[in-house]
UniProtKB/TrEMBL annotation:
Biased composition (Polar residues): 212-222
InterPro entries per the UniProt record, alphabetical: Cadherin-like_dom, Cadherin-like_sf, Cadherin_CS, Protocadherin/Cadherin-CA
One GO term (biological process): homophilic cell adhesion via plasma membrane adhesion molecules
Regions crossing the membrane: none
Cell location: Membrane
Region of interest: Disordered: 212-232
Name by which UniProt lists this protein: Cadherin domain-containing protein
Source lineage: Eukaryota, Metazoa, Chordata, Craniata, Vertebrata
GO MF terms held by the record: calcium ion binding
Residue ranges of domain Cadherin in the record: 22-127, 128-219
GO cellular component: plasma membrane
Alphabetical keyword list: Calcium, Glycoprotein, Membrane, Repeat, Transmembrane, Transmembrane helix
Length: 258
């Protein structure tokens, strides 16, 4: 018998494994006031092949305000914001994470995650018109609605829930608000007393619309109330509360007798 021979067999890797993407940590909702660089998710990528076949490049679609940042650990990435967010412009993002190896032929895999941009109270209520000018007749019924103001808010939920009130500060405002009240929920302005043209012909007041966010944001608008002449003084046509026409150029509502 002769001396033995040792045989070493080397198995050469072929690129037969696609990268595997795993989301190890994920916040599916992020406030719209988050600063650029805020981490949304941690991504782990693994490829069972070796050499170039196991070297992985990871990316996210370019049409979103997010990027993948490399980590100190190999094949670990952080998904972070790259620019400011605005929920009022876009509240939902579909992020497609793509992992490609460096083998030939190149193999790749994708994973899609959904990120919701949550609302913060960053919009003030806005009045639909302003300033308002409206007319009522003397001898009106106390408690009746004589006008309505309307504001809207681009935020959502409590941040968009609006309440209305009339500013009361100073003797003149106290006099005005003794004649008027406002429905805090819908903005209807109510006459508390019957108006008398000979006593008061016109006055101004200020309405504030506030949202219910934290902190609460508000906006204000001025209203001018004019009392037209009733039966006691001559005019071209008596006025009553039976029909209304809106003149947008004057921001006024005038009520005519039919």
């Amino acid at each position: 018998e002769g001396p033995g021979w040792g045989v070493i067999i080397k198995i050469v890797d072929v690129n037969d494994n696609a990268p595997e993407i795993e989301v190890t940590s994920f916040s599916n909702s992020i406030p719209e006031d988050s600063r650029p660089g805020t981490t949304v998710a941690l991504i782990s990528v693994n490829d069972l092949d070796s050499g170039l076949n196991g070297k992985v490049i990871c990316s996210v679609n370019e049409d979103v305000p997010f990027i993948l940042s490399t980590s100190l650990k190999d094949k670990m990435f952080s998904l972070v914001t790259k620019s400011p967010l605005d929920r009022e412009k876009q509240s939902q993002y579909e992020l497609t994470i793509t992992a490609k190896d460096a083998g030939q032929p190149q193999l790749s895999s994708e994973k899609t995650i959904s990120v919701t941009v949550s609302d913060v109270n960053d919009n003030r209520p806005e009045f639909s018109l302003g300033p308002y000018t409206f007319y009522v007749t003397e001898g009106n019924n106390p408690g009746a609605s004589v006008f309505s103001v309307k504001a809207s808010d681009r935020d959502e939920n409590d941040n968009a829930r609006i309440s209305y009130h009339i500013i009361r500060n100073g003797s003149e405002d106290n006099k005005v608000t003794s004649f008027l009240n406002i429905n805090t929920e819908n903005g209807d302005v109510l006459a508390l007393k019957s108006f008398d043209f000979e006593t008061m012909k016109t006055f101004q007041f200020q309405v504030v619309a506030s949202d219910s966010g934290t902190p609460s944001l508000s906006n204000n608008n001025h209203g001018t109330k004019k009392t037209p002449v009733g039966n006691e003084e001559r005019m071209s046509g008596r006025m009553c509360s039976c029909c209304a026409f809106v003149d947008s150029s004057l921001s006024a509502i005038t009520i005519f007798d039919l």
